[in-house]
Amino acid sequence: MSILTVFIAFIGILLMIAVLIQNPKGGGVDSTFGGAQANQMFGAAKSSDFIEKATWGLAAALLVLCLVAAVLVGDGAAASEQLLTQ
Question: How far is residue 51's CA from residue 62's CA, in Å, rounded to a whole number?
Fold first, then answer.
């Protein structure tokens, strides 16, 4: 369970970074993170597409990991409740 918690924290940090890198006006990579170089390397449209896809992928991964953790904890809570009643 602790490994799953570490994965959730790691995905959460990556998701925060991906959201912060995005330009709030939808113009691509923000200039504070080397926007000119990233736009030259990927092209303006490709860099924003990559970051948007990465954001959606990380959000989906975080959702799935949280659901898995909830199911695992739910099973563990039932087992510990049975021990307490005995």
Answer: 16
Q: List pLDDT tens digits, range 15-59.
A: 999 998 887 665 555 555 555 555 555 555 566 788 889 999 999
Phi, psi of 23 (to 5 degrees): -80, 130
- CA-closest candidate to residue 15, choices 66, 50, 62, 48: 62
Compute the half-sphere exposure of residue 5: CA atoms within 13 Å on the CB side of its CA: 4
Cβ proximity of 55 and 46 under 8 Å: no
Instruction: Supply the DSSP symbol for 25.
Output: T
Q: Residue 29's beta-bridge partner residues?
A: 22
* More confident: 8 or 30: 8
| Cα 77–chain centre separation | 26
| CA–CA distance, 41 with 19 (Å, rounded to integer) | 20
